[in-house]
Design brief:
Helices cover about 50% and strands about 0% of the residues. By secondary structure, it is mainly α. The chain has one domain.
Length: about 110
């Protein structure tokens, strides 16, 4: 059985979800969750550390990140809103799925 920090421990508040998921053997989920967390940070704050991290791995992401100098995700689409992350229905549904998966893992490890 893998060792992970208990959610009941005093350090619980310091343990980030990404680290908890990795410690419980869910490395891929941890990385994907982190990617979406960075994307949400970019949506809230714009260009910065999170944006640079996503740009560095943009070819590996499940969603599109607007690169420096790009004006549009879809050239010719006059209805496109100017954002750095392409947020569509699939992006929102994936966020919900990731939260459900992480919640299930936490619940199963606390029982």
């Amino acid at each position: 059985m893998k060792q992970y920090q208990s959610l009941d421990s005093p350090e619980r508040r310091k343990l980030r979800l990404k680290d908890y998921l990795k410690q419980s053997g869910n490395v891929e989920l941890a990385e994907t969750f982190n990617d979406y967390q960075l994307a949400i940070n970019v949506l809230k704050h714009g260009k910065g550390r999170s944006y640079r991290q996503l740009l560095a791995k943009s070819s590996e992401l499940e969603f599109k990140v607007k690169r420096e100098g790009d004006n549009f995700f879809f050239e010719g689409d006059v209805s496109e809103v100017s954002v750095l992350i392409d947020v569509d229905d699939q992006f929102v549904r994936r966020c919900a799925t990731l939260i459900q998966e992480a919640s299930s893992i936490i619940s199963s490890n606390t029982n």
